[in-house]
Structure formats: C-alpha cells, structure tokens
Design goal:
Helix 6 crosses helix 10. This protein has a single domain, classed as HUPs (Rossmann fold), CATH 3.40.50. Helix content is 43%, strand content 7%. By secondary structure, the protein is mostly helical. A three-stranded parallel beta sheet has the order 1-2-3, with no helix packed on it. It has a three-stranded mixed beta sheet with strand order 4-6-5.
Length: 285
C-alpha cells in the first residue's frame, strides 16, 4: 500500500513505482507486486477529490481508495481513550474532539498518530503486505526531533527504520536517501511534469508561538538547514537508525494510541505512555 498525500514525496514515489511496474511487465509479461494507493482526507468531505482523479487518469493501473481521518475513531480502542465531548456535540466529528486538547501541538501530534493507525488498519484489512511512505530524509529528520520533543523518544528506532512498525505492519521509506529539495527538483524535470499532481499547502509565516506546533518549528528549521548544511539532516536520520529497536514479540504492553512499548517507567495501570497522556489532557475550563 502506498500512502498518497499528494505531496512531492508520495507523488514522486507513485510515479517511480508505476514506471518500475511498466518496465517489469514489458520484460516479463507480469509484475512482481500490485500497488494499492490510499489517500486519507485530513479534513473536508471533498478534499483531494480532483487531485485523486488526476492521479487516476495518469496512473490507471493501480487500485485506489480514500478514507477520512475520522474513520480512525473506529480503530480498536481509540474512542475510549480520546477526550469525552458534551452530549450536545457531534461525537463522530473528530475535529470537535481534537479542539478540546490543550494545544495546537497536541492536536497535530494526535492527528499524525491517528493517521498512522488508520493507514495501518486499512492495509491490514485489505491484505497489503506493507506500507510505502514518501518520506524524504528531511521529513524523517523532522519527525525524529518532533517525536523526541513530544516525549516519545522510545519510538525513534521505529520512526526511521524500514521493517516491522509499531502497528504490526511493515513500514518502508523508499525515498529516505533524498532531501526534500532533491525530490522537488525531480518533480519539475519529469516529462510530463508532476507539478499538476502535487498539492502545495501554503505555509503561513509564524505570527504567534501560541499557535505554532513543534512540527511547524521542525519543518521550518530543516527547510533552512537542508539548503546550506544537508549533511546535518542526513546525520539526524543516521543517528536515529543506530538506535536498537526492541523486538515487538518481547513487548508485553504498548500504548493504545501511539503503540510505543510501555516500559517500567510508564504510569501505573495506564494504557497510555506519558507523552500521549500529556497530549490527550484537556485543560480546565
């Protein structure tokens, strides 16, 4: 399964895999694998509809499906650990639930975790053997430091490593050796160009730290660093790769939200790690 966000990384990966499959079929008359493409709508019922149709037209040989991030509420145990909302409000509205969290950083953190849970659950349900992400070295470096800053350091070996993930489905990052700026260059030089398939989200300048997330800070930091010091970006990922990931067969309990192994220092009788307890805390009125 390929997780397609319409960003440069996942779009470039879809193009490369499509070309690879065409080459296989031309040589042998068959392909070694099939590609199932999933797009998750982060908000809005019609988000990404036109973009997906353009992708289908250009790469018609794959199976496509879409899902709403709100469907993550149906994953095992998710509803029971998210904050309760008043009876008068829509209990199926994920944004209503997320707005009750204490900060924009917590909202972005939980959304990313729910995205991984939903993609992994969809891959398992459809019989996919693994999940392909379009993460560049730059994006992996951003996620590494963001996870550490959010108190989820125990998950770092799983963030950058290819192979079995915390969600019991293998994760792979085929674009991991490329910087974001290199992928952006590739997008523009492919013939025909992939620019029309890429959805560029406008990055608003930071005007208040109150509404700036850790993810935003990491993104802006590495956007600057990769221009002048690309080796620093790669070193962050290489350092994370050196961390030894525990075997999940030896893990007795995992956090019910982020699936990080719960060690001896986790809160007693808690189903969540400390980082997720903090993220899901609701401020007093």
């Amino acid at each position: 399964m390929l997780a397609l966000s319409f960003g440069p990384g996942s779009t470039a990966l879809l193009h490369l895999l499509s070309q690879h499959l065409k080459g296989q079929f031309a040589k042998t008359g068959r392909t070694g694998y099939k590609l199932h493409v999933l797009h998750v709508r982060m908000s809005g019922d019609d988000e990404g509809t036109e973009s997906l149709e353009r992708v289908k037209t250009r790469y018609p040989d794959h199976e496509y499906c879409t899902a709403s991030l709100a469907e993550a509420l149906d994953c095992d145990g998710i509803r029971s650990i998210l904050p309760e909302i008043p009876q008068s409000e829509d209990h199926d509205n994920l944004m209503t639930i997320l707005r009750r969290l204490g900060s924009t950083t917590a909202q972005a953190d939980v959304m990313q975790l729910l995205l991984c849970r939903l993609v992994a659950a969809t891959a398992s349900r459809t019989g996919c053997e693994g999940i392909l992400w379009g993460n560049s070295t730059t994006r992996l470096a951003e996620r590494t430091l963001a996870n550490a800053a959010n108190g989820r350091g125990a998950s770092l070996p799983f963030v950058t490593a290819d192979g079995m993930s915390l969600y019991k489905v293998p994760f792979f990052n085929p674009m991991r050796d490329l910087l974001s700026k290199e992928i952006a260059s590739f997008i523009s030089i492919v013939e025909p160009s992939l620019d029309e398939l890429v959805v560029q989200h406008e990055q608003k300048p930071m005007t208040s730290t109150k509404y700036t997330t850790i993810d935003d800070l990491m993104r802006q930091y590495f956007e600057h660093v990769e221009q002048n010091y690309p080796s620093i970006v790669a070193n962050v990922v290489r350092t994370s790769d050196k961390l030894q990931a525990p075997s999940l067969t030896d893990v007795e309990t995992q956090c019910e939200l982020c699936c990080t192994p719960l060690g001896a220092n986790s809160p007693e009788k808690s189903r969540l790690c400390h980082a997720c307890i903090v993220a899901l805390s609701v401020p007093d009125p």
